[in-house]
Amino acid sequence: MCPSSTTSSDTSAATRSLAGEVRAGSVLLDRRAQRIVSVGFLVIIVGAALVDLCWPAAPKPLAGIHAQRLEEQRAATQWMDGTRMRLLEWDLRDTSRVREATLPLWSAFLFGAGRMPHSSVIPGADGWLYMKARVQPERRTAPLAQREAIRVLIAFDRVLAAMGTRLVLVPIPDKSMVHPEHLPAGFQSDAADYERFIAAWRARGLHVVDVLGAMREAGGQHFLRTDTHWTHRAARVTARAEMEAMGILSSVHEQASHWEEAGNELDAGDLLVSGGMDIRAMHHGDLTGKALRAMGALGEVPIEKFTGDQATLAAPDMQRPWAHYGSSFSSFVHFKQMLEWYAGERGFIKDFIAVDAEWIMLQLVTDLVAARERGIVPRAVAFEFLLTDFLTDQVAPKKLVFSQTGIEPPAPVPETLRPAMVARPRLVPGEHALTSRGIAWGAAPGAFVHPADGSFGVVIEGEVLSGAPTFGLNVGPTHLYIPWPPGARRVHVPLFGSGLAEGFHCALLDLADQARVRIDKVSLASPLTVGAAVSVPTPVGAVPGGWEADLEHLAGADERALFVQLTTGACERIELTSAECGEQLVIEKPAAQMRLVLPLVQGKPTKWRVRAQGSAKAVVFKEVSTLLQARR
Amino acid sequence: MVFASQVFLYWFLPLVLIGTLLLPRWLRNPFLTAASFLFYGWWRPDYALLMLATASFDFGAALLIDHARRRGGSGRGWLVLSVIANLGLLAWFKYANFAVGIFNDVLLWQGAPPVPWVEVLLPVGISFYTFQSMSYTIDVYRGDLKATRHFGDFLCFVSLFPQLVAGPIVRYADVADQMAVHRMTVPSFAQGVLWFIFGLAKKVLLADLLAPVVSGLFDAGTPASAGLAWTGLAAYTLQIYCDFSGYSDMAIGLGLMLGLRFPFNFESPYKAASITEFWRRWHITLSTWLRDYLYIPLGGRRKGPLRTQVNLLLTMLLGGLWHGANWTFIAWGAWHGLLLSIERVAMFRRFQQWLPRALQVGLTLLCVMLGWVLFRAHSMSDALDWFAALAGNGGDSLLVVAPMQYAILALAGVLALFAPSTREIVANASPRTVVCAAILLPLTMLHLHWQDHVPFLYYQF
Q1: ipTM value of the model?
Q2: How do strand A380-386 and strand A166-172 relate by DSSP bridges?
Q3: Which contiguous run of DSSP H or E holds residue A303?
Q4: How far is Cα A238 from Cα A227, in angstroms, rounded to an integer?
Q5: Are A252 and A314 in contact (CB under 8 A)?
Q6: Residue ranges per structural domain of chain A
Q7: What is the CATH number of domain A547-631?
Q8: Measured distance CA(B338)–CA(B443) in Å, rounded
Q9: Which of B182, B209, B236 is the last residue of a domain?
Q10: Which of A106, A498, A169, A37 is nearest to B209 (CA)?
Q11: How far apart are CA A331 and CA B88, in angstroms?
Q12: Is the previous residue joined to A409 through a cis bond, with omega within 30 degrees of 0?
């Protein structure tokens, strides 16, 4: 804005020449150079377009729920609001050969030489990486919410104690608390928070393992440099401390265990990936990785190698097992084996990847309720979680309400627990025409626990008027479709999700857009209970050509489905067949971890035959609660 | 659609250039109009109708003004109608949310319930094309321009994609003759390519690489130290310059490629030795627009020193408000208005001239940077927190700035303060300039592929 319309004496020569000048300057290049510039520019941009047009790259494959969501998004795009154009841009970008070819080179330069981090990762000294959300939690729970968390835990502890079960809390400190020495200048660790929590919980009679203290005492490196998880050393220290706190530490086997310092390498961690710095995650070969290592962008961390003799472990106590429920830390670096080593006997261990403390606790409660109904009372249960979960209100422990365990909800009952929030208003009595999008319900983790009766499922009473409606469930990374059982007027749809960011999601739908149902009543169901447990002997190691195994399960009175968890290695195909149900489920290229819902015939033995094709390292079938194995 | 995107660079631009080149002259304007509507409608096709309505209304208003004048009237009524329509449109889409927000704040303060309100979406570039279109009717009214009878040409002018969404603000008089001829020559095309490449490099390689530093510091609370605060402010100072001037350079370049010469918009503004000079180098087309259509009609300098200061302040306030519906933009305009007013005081002018030029430039830059705090802050309280952080009373937001980002910050600073402007570079182009452009183009393409879309800062003004 230059309000003065006449030049003043103090304007420079440059600005005087600008007054009124509205023409771009001339070019001193000769005609030949001008042609080179013009043609060269056109050749480059047209050439890139022709390469992308004639030789498009394969779009990134998506599977399961992600593929389905993309299709849903595609179907929802429109021209007039511009979303169709965004999609077209996305597709052009995704299939650009030029982009595919140039991306790794530029990324290697930016991250390798330029050390450009993603906003979610904090690069520290000596190549150490920290997760920003844990070092600098965006929100901190108010003291009131933390007190509520303690109240819930105290109540939970007392009920379990009355049952004869010891609850042991195992809070994992954040990496920055254990290794603050590599934090960049200005960032501080919150180890004091950890110590405060331990003190507060212990003061109230809770059994808490001071993991941070144990790590400090042991010394050495407890977290991986470019990963959020711990090392073998940390896992071993924690496993020992946990068993000691649970009162089942077996000193005999500690002498017999073997821990070796070995030169195993872990040269890529989840922080490299989430920070956008793991070039190899883009599948561009070892050449880039080697170049990055040469530049010092990727490091090598020696970790301890675990050797142990499983034959020396005792059989589990079926009536009074010990149990451990934990986060991804529990699945990392042989932690589970270490727990069993220090216990001297097998136990029941469950780990949950990429979920927060609330989900773990919910699953623990579910299984305890089910186990208690069958007279199985664990003598000790460890609950491992990340302490930072309690420092932010991404987890709100006040949402956790446990029923059928005698625990009263902390007053006042939060709004989020009202039944209206459990099922979305669309799942209401009446006639419904179903489309492929269907009537969906589900919510963020924790919000589906009913305060009054602790229900975890939904029972729909009604009738299929026409067509073939289906329930679509997100089960782990897979989206599973289960038909409304023909002729059924009462369907129990359990809530079972992997607890990932999308939470639980279920929908009543018809992929053919034709079905009609009449819903008479929707009620919250009692917790999922499973009948006699099934254990499936599975071959260990690769089995060329695959293998078969049978599941046999006697359905309980309220049971409509069997939940199984699959863990596969290099499996090409899993086929599940049931003659009694007349169902067949085929999964091509199954994900590494999957949970399935297999329908059962009420009151009758239902056999499901499982066939795995291709080389399978190990496929383990577990029910929701294998605490029930003793009842076989 | 934005210039720094694959779909524009590889698909839209080649097709438009080749199409314009191959088509006969009489078809070029309709073709460009269609392409421009596609370009604009790529964001929201329904909002392209709004642009069509604006252009249609002003085209008709200008004809009616012309008709009235030929009959002995002034056509003032039609002018007023055009101004009201354009400003009304701008007021609704740009300021309605702000106004309702203020009204609701007052109601809440009074203990009354707020008025329910559904937020209005701001159409991209509305500030630019309404000003452009409005300047046409004003020029016709003033007699500076004869109303055109070719709606196609006028629509092409309003919708022309190179300068549609973020300037420069072009006046019909500047391009009317050119659009009738559309002379695409090798020299102008080559000029255009150089302008475009340098602009693209400024935007993609400098502004976008500084963006994470800026957002990491401005959007995550207040920086924890004065050092970080000044780093963030320096980064934003350079980001906004590289982003906006880069876009203008690209627009000028595209215009030249299409045989049109647009006014340039930036002339190394951070080399200015005074705020007055700064506004002759920064967003030149906006400042001249406000001078010609607001400051001078208010009286300019013709009504005495006090009135001059008032006119100046009012122009700057409205200029600030033009940038966005927030008290911070008004404060930014007021800040510059105050500085301009101070510079008009004779005693201060003598003091300023007494200082060495380097110090003049430094002080001017400091004042401009402090103004950018207001421009970038989300609210006045954020801005005050930032000023406190700059003074050493920081908050708790930390950021690790990569060595490469420091290097880019330094490079951008050196270029802004010491390098010639794009106009000077292109005007004095040599084979070395071409080699530089040949290196920059693939580098920008590399980064373009890598990054997610980083929008132009001025995209929604």
Answers
A1: 0.87
A2: parallel
A3: strand A303-307
A4: 18
A5: no
A6: 33-57+77-113, 138-263+308-399, 415-525, 547-631
A7: 2.60.120.380
A8: 42
A9: B182
A10: A106
A11: 62
A12: no
What is the distance in angstroms between the CA of the first residue and the CA of the last residue of chain A?
A: 84
Q: B339: which 2 tokens?
A: 């500085």
Of the candidate ranges A77-91, A354-368, B66-80, B256-270, the one whose mean pLDDT is the lowest: A354-368
Claim to verify: residue B139 and residue B224 sit in the same structural domain: no
**What residues in A contact B46, CB-CB < 8 Å?**
80-81
* Residue A420 touches chain B, beta carbons under 8 Å: no
A393 — pLDDT class (breaks 50, 70, 90): very low
User: For residue B265, which of B289, B242, B241, B249 has the smallest C-alpha distance?
Assistant: B249
Choose between A353 and A308: higher pLDDT: A353
Mutate to test the interface with A, among B290, B450, B451, B459 (most CBs of A within 10 A): B450
Identify the residue among B189, B268, B400, B447 best suited for mutation to test binding to A, counting A beta carbons within 10 A and taking the highest: B400
The C-alpha atoms of residue B104 and residue B452 are separated, in whole angstroms, by 37
pLDDT of residue A615: 44
Residue A604 has a CB neighbour count (10 Å cut-off) of 10
Could you tell me the CA-to-CA distances from A614 to A334, A477, A551, A569, B279 in Å, in that order? 26, 21, 20, 10, 72
- Tell me how many residue pairs between chain A and chain B have CB atoms under 8 A apart: 213
Q: Are residues B242 and B360 in the same domain?
A: yes
The number of distinct structural domains making up chain B is 2
User: Hey, which residues of B are catalytic here?
Assistant: 323
Residues B229 and B136 in one domain: no
**Alpha carbon A487 to its chain's center:** 36
**Domain of B78, in residue numbers:** 6-182
Q: What are the residue ranges of helices labelled H in A404-453? A: 419-422
**8-state DSSP, A282:** G
Residue B461 lies in a domain: no
Please give the pLDDT value at position B233.
94
Q: What are phi and psi of A107, to 5 degrees?
A: -65, -40
Do B322 and B341 belong to one domain? yes
A35 lies within 8 A of chain B by CB: yes
pTM of the model: 0.65
Q: Which fold has domain A415-525?
A: Jelly Rolls (2.60.120)
B442 lies in a domain? yes
A chain contacts of residue B335, beta-carbon cutoff 8 Å? none
CB-neighbour burial class of residue B295 (10 A; exposed 0-12, middle 13-18, buried 19+): buried
- For residues A148 and A411, give the distance between their C-alpha atoms in angstroms, rounded to a whole number: 9
A99 contacts chain B (CB < 8 A)? yes
CA distance A442 to B167: 48
Q: pLDDT tier at B251 (50, 70, 90 boundaries)?
A: very high
- d(CA A555, CA A536) in angstroms, rounded, equals 17
* Close Cβ partners of B91 (under 8 Å, ≥ 6 residues apart): none
pLDDT tens across B412-450, in order?
A: 999 999 999 999 999 888 889 999 999 999 999 988 887
End-to-end CA distance of chain B: 15
- Tens-digit pLDDT profile for residues B73-110: 888 899 999 999 999 988 888 888 888 888 888 887 77
CB-based contact A259:A232 (threshold 8 Å): yes
